[in-house]
Structures are given as structure tokens and as C-alpha cells.
Amino acid sequence: MADAIPLRARLAAKGLDGVTLLVLPAAALLLALFLYPFGYGLWLSFRPKDGSLLGNYARFFSDPFLYDTIFTTLALAVPVTIVNLLFAVPVAFRVRLMRHQRLLTTILVLPITLGTVLVAEGMLNYFGPQGWFTRALVSTGLFNASSIKLVHNYWGVFLSLLITGFPFTFLLTLSYVTGIDPGLEQAAATLGARAAERFRHVFLPLLVPGLAITFCLSFVQAYSVFPSAVLLGAPAGPTRVISIAAYQAAFEEYDYSLASAIAMIMGAVQLVVVVAVLALRNLFYRGPAAGAKG
């Protein structure tokens, strides 16, 4: 009986039809662009200059100047991601009710088109020692120039990551917020639930899975900070993030094996945080999530 069914029909039943075959070139491209560099970098990280298998990793975790970069980067990426989410949720709820939603969304995501370097240059001209904002504060007589330092430190990088990361976080949050059926809120309101109760009992459980994904993606984006830490921070001090350590190993020490090991550690830290957030999401709520759109 099986021989009577054409081969094409049997393959189609298993999902191997003409449309699926069109995906193969894209899959091959992904393998070439991502899996091969990752595999090569992982292999290279186990080939240190001293010849030992784990020499690069032993050097990294035995040198505070290197392993402290993990916590320095986390101290930037985690707070920035949380603050961006705290801003994005109420703004998204407000924007979804406005008539000119597309126009407002375009204005809010405009900073993402500027790029990290252009944002850093603008912040230096605005918040720098001779910037407009600094001079305005000094002109009030309440501050002196030496007491105002908003760039070349932790807060300069923090503000830069907020400006460049908020549009991305907002877009993801808005897609989940607008994906919730308005009928659920109306039903809760009909039953007497106030706005805070509707958010806590209706919206929040449906948003948690989406907000967890948004947190993970925004965190990964913030954790890879490099230009902001160099241009607006103190790359030899408080904002020496792990990407700077990898850059210095590769292009100052010309130790590509150590740089690969640092990159692998960087990826592992991000993976641990992402897995932890997704595990907490499953503990908080299990059920249908709001469908994202847009």
C-alpha cells in the first residue's frame, strides 16, 4: 500500500516539500555565518600560547583584572535592561490607546537609527564638561564645573545604553501589549476590577512570557556594550567591560586564543542569565502567552 503512494506525497507528509527545500540555502548560510565561527572560536580558545588545554580559562579566572569584567558588565547590562523594561511597559500601554500610534511609535524608536557612536558624540557635546547641559547647571550658581561629571564614568555609559536600548525594548513590549485581546480587559472592568487589578490579574500574567523574552534580548544587546564603554566611560577603570578585555587580548596583545576564550566566557554568562530568566518565567506563570504582532 505504501508503494502505491507517490514519493513526493510521502515526503510532503513528512514536511519535505518544495517550500521546505527553499529553506535549505538559508539554513546553509546560517551554518556558514554562525556555527562555523563559533566552532572555530571554541576550538581556538583551547589552544593557548603556553600549550595547556585550559590555559586561557585558567589565566582569565586567576586574574582579577580579567574576571572582574564579568561583574562590571553585569552591573551595567542588568540595571539598564530593568529600567528600560520599567519605562517601556507603561509607555506601551499608553501608546496603544492613542489615535496616532504609528507616528508616536516612530518618534520613540528614532534613537535606534542614530547608532551608538552618534549617540555618544551627542552626549559628549551635551553632557560633557563644556556641554550645554553642564554650562546651564553651572550658570545657575548652584553647581561648579568640577562637581558635574556625567560622562567618562559609569553613568555616561548607563545613559547611552538607555537611549540606544529603549527603542528596541519598547518595540518588543508594544508588540506583546497590543497582542492582548481588549475583550479580556473589558470583561474584568465589567466585573468591577480597577485599573491596577486589571493589570495585575489580566495583563501581567499574559505579558510575563513576552517580557521575559524582551528582557533576554535586551540584556544580550546591553551586555555586548563596547563603543559606549570606550567613548563615554572609563575603559581602564569602572567601565572596563568584558568586550574591552577581549579586544585588548586580540588587538593589543595579539593573543587571539585568549580573546576567543574571553568571547566564549562572555557567551556563557549571557546564556546563564537567559536560562535563569526563562526558568523564573516558568515558575511565575504557565499558560497561554499574549501573541505578539507587528
TrEMBL record:
TM helices/strands, residue ranges: 21-45, 65-91, 103-127, 154-177, 202-223, 258-280
Task: Tell me the InterPro entries matching this sequence.
Answer: MetI-like, MetI-like_sf
Per UniProt, what is the membrane topology? Answer: Multi-pass membrane protein
- Which Gene Ontology terms describe the biological processes this protein takes part in? transmembrane transport
Gene Ontology terms: cellular component: plasma membrane
In which compartments does the protein localize?
Cell membrane
Q: Where is the ABC transmembrane type-1 domain?
A: 70-277
The alphabetical list of record keywords is: Cell membrane, Membrane, Transmembrane, Transmembrane helix, Transport
Q: Tell me one Pfam family matched here.
A: BPD_transp_1
Query: Which superkingdom does the taxonomy of this entry point to?
Result: Bacteria
> Which CDD domains does its entry note?
TM_PBP2 (cd06261)
- Family of this protein: Belongs to the binding-protein-dependent transport system permease family. CysTW subfamily.
Q: What is this protein called?
A: ABC transporter permease
